[in-house]
């Protein structure tokens, strides 16, 4: 009976992972800071004085974990339709083979997907350290200390929303059945590789959007939730690609205004 409800179990697992991830962010992601004190609707955020501090190994680990958990909280809901469809296909294949259950390969698929965002988290952490060392990001508040940098990220993100690479990656994310039919791999290792591949398409779709966290604050719940909603609607709405372009226009306008101001 438990194996027959594997899809329900998988959906519950995804929900639990998302809830834990959001709870971790809401409690400060281990930084000891109040996430409410780091959140604001203000734009642009104020430039604050402060010197760059050294990053001991423990702090590097903390920042990598923060970025990874944040990506899980923001991106996993949008990946849920792909994961659930994968579980359905796996269960159908296993039934034909005389075995019922798709839990293990589906969890391998999810592990591969999350691994791709771990790689992004490593790169984002390195970028945060570099920007902080140059005084472009405030070490404590974790938001841009340069309106020029903020404008550059907004213009880059806005332009990327219209790029062919964005369109191709978004198309893969919006069409789970087509993705699985094109790239299907069997076995647990195949599930892991397939999850990794889907994750890389997802990273390709959204990595520039995630850089906007430096504009609004890496731990600013307003920006985290706002970007998560934009990503989710891009992937799930019937005409999500038009939303991507509309948000791109908004980013270009905001970046241009900030640069001129």
Total strands: 0
The biggest beta sheet, please? none
Q: Report the principal-axis shape.
A: globular
Q: How big is the Rg?
A: 19 Å
Report the helical percentage: over 70%
Structural class: mainly alpha
Proportion of residues in extended strands: under 5%
Whole-number total of structural domains: 1
Query: What is the count of DSSP helices, taking H or I runs of 4+ residues?
Result: 10
The N- and C-terminal alpha carbons lie at a distance of 63 Å
H and E order? HHHHHHHHHH
Average of pLDDT: 90
- Low-pLDDT residue intervals, each spanning 5 or more residues: none
A few lines on this structure:
By secondary structure, this protein is mainly α.
Provide tags for this entry.
about 0% strand, mainly alpha, globular
What does this structure look like?
The protein is mainly alpha-helical and 261 residues long. The chain has one domain. Helix content is 73%, strand content 0%. The protein contains ten helices and no strands. Helix 1 packs antiparallel against helix 2 and helix 9 packs antiparallel against helix 10. The longest helix is centred in the N-terminal third of the chain and has 40 residues. The chain is globular and about 60 Å long. The protein starts with 5 loop residues before the first helix and ends with a helix. The model has no long low-confidence stretch (mean pLDDT 90).
